[in-house]
Structure formats: structure tokens, C-alpha cells
Design brief:
Order of helices and strands: EEEHEEHEHHHEHEHEE
Helix content: 25-40%
CATH class: Alpha Beta
Oligomer: single chain
CATH superfamily: P-loop containing nucleotide triphosphate hydrolases
Number of domains: 1
Distance between the termini: 24 Å
Shape: globular
Number of strands: 10
Strand order of the largest sheet: 6-7-8-3-9-10
CATH architecture: 3-Layer(aba) Sandwich
CATH topology: Rossmann fold
Length: 234
């Protein structure tokens, strides 16, 4: 089991502002799917930006992060590129990732291309065929045949064609009906356990967390000074 442990993390957008996040201490364990909730503008996306390493240059971030028994001291507003290399994000609009005129397998192979591809045959996919079949996805299917939930699953698998240990998703079920929502959450839970991932999901849907999150709901709140806290829902 791997752990992502955030210790005494503080963040503000610039020196003149109050702390946005103050003394954040939280632990995430691999094999689990976590749901992050909070009102609009409370800081869910900012928390993801900290884990992705995409904060504005003028912001201030301090604290330590321990991942897989390696401690990273936050320095110069960054955690460490070694940590960021383990973090991958599924974009909210998965249609921007997927080529509808191609098959599932072709999309997965495209996702595995390096940043600067060379002229050579597409590599074999690092996909998870057993999981694909569990959710009625055939690699030879044309993407246009997939349901909304299956397309979301394809986008997740495309993201995993690059080495990943921490997976971030922003409202992955927002546009899905109940059946497809159940499919995607079941897939994520299965995925987290089978390949030992830490999965974090931003969602506004309280019913979703009540149904699927059990003790894995994280709430972001702000006080009268606009400072945010992060804690598991008690």
C-alpha cells in the first residue's frame, strides 16, 4: 500500500493575501477512491493544482509531502517533479481526448505516444483488457458505439497509458445518467484496487458521495477569514 501524506501545508496566492489553505494535514491511501466536496469557489480545483504543479508563479506554497515513503520538502513553490510525474488528470470534457472515428484500441495506442513521437508503428497498449470486458468494452469497438459511461472509462484508460500512481478526476459523472454514473464509479473502485492507485474525484453531487464514498469524503470549507480547511467528513 502506498500513501500520500500532506503535512502542515500552507498556501496563498500572493504575499499580501491571507492564507488560502492553512496547516493542511491529510493522508490518502492507495487502493481507494476519494471524493472531494465543497461549495463553488471553495478551492477544490486549487487543491488539484497543488498536486499537479500548476500553481501561479507568484503564489506561495510551504509544507512537506510524503509519497511512498519518500519525503518531499516544498521548495520554491513546488513539491518535486518526481512527485508530479506520478500524477495524471482526466480532463472534465473527455470528448476533447477521444477520436470518435477510431476504435477503442486505436485511441489507447494514440494516448501512449510520447510527447515528441517519432515515425514508427504505434506501441502495444498498456490497457487492462479484463477490466474492459467487465464493462462491456471491446477494444475493436468504434468509439461512436460507446455509451457516455464507457467513453469516460476509455478516457481514464487513455490517461493510464502513461505511468500513473495518483489519478485526479474533475466531475467525471456530471453529464451521466444514474446507470452510467454507477458504471464509472464501479470501474474506478475496481481500478484503484487492481493497480493500487490513489484516485481523487471532485464532485458537487452529495448523493453520489453518500452512495459510494462511505468514509472517503473530503470536505473543503472556508472560515470567516476566507481560509480553507480540508478534512474527512466526520
Amino acid at each position: 500500500m502506498k500513501k500520500l501524506i500532506i503535512k502542515d501545508m500552507n498556501f496563498k496566492f500572493n504575499e499580501q493575501q491571507n492564507y488560502f489553505f492553512h496547516t493542511i494535514n491529510i493522508t490518502f491511501k492507495s487502493g481507494n477512491t476519494y471524493f472531494i466536496q465543497g461549495k463553488n469557489g471553495v478551492g477544490k480545483s486549487t487543491f488539484f493544482s497543488i498536486l499537479q504543479g500548476t500553481l501561479p508563479h507568484h503564489s506561495l506554497l510551504t509544507g512537506t509531502v510524503n509519497f511512498n515513503n519518500t519525503e518531499f520538502i516544498i521548495n520554491n513553490n513546488c513539491i518535486d517533479q518526481k512527485l508530479y510525474s506520478h500524477v495524471k488528470t482526466v480532463v472534465q470534457n473527455v470528448n476533447t481526448m477521444i477520436v470518435n472515428s477510431m476504435t477503442v484500441e486505436e485511441n489507447l495506442k494514440l494516448a501512449g505516444l510520447p510527447t515528441y513521437p517519432r515515425c514508427k508503428p504505434l506501441s502495444s497498449i498498456i490497457a487492462l483488457p479484463a477490466i474492459m470486458h467487465e464493462f462491456m468494452i471491446d477494444p475493436l469497438m468504434n468509439v461512436e458505439q460507446l455509451s457516455g459511461g464507457q467513453k469516460q472509462i476509455l478516457a481514464i484508460m487513455m490517461t493510464l497509458q502513461k505511468p500513473t500512481q495518483i489519478l485526479l478526476l474533475d466531475e467525471p459523472t456530471a453529464a451521466l445518467d444514474e446507470k452510467n454514473t454507477h458504471m464509472v464509479i464501479q470501474f474506478l473502485n475496481t481500478l484503484a484496487q487492481k493497480i493500487d492507485l490513489i484516485i481523487l474525484i471532485i464532485t458537487h453531487d452529495k448523493e453520489l458521495t453518500q452512495t459510494y464514498a462511505q468514509d472517503r469524503t473530503i470536505i473543503i470549507k472556508k472560515d470567516v477569514n476566507e481560509t480553507r480547511t480540508i478534512a474527512f467528513e466526520s
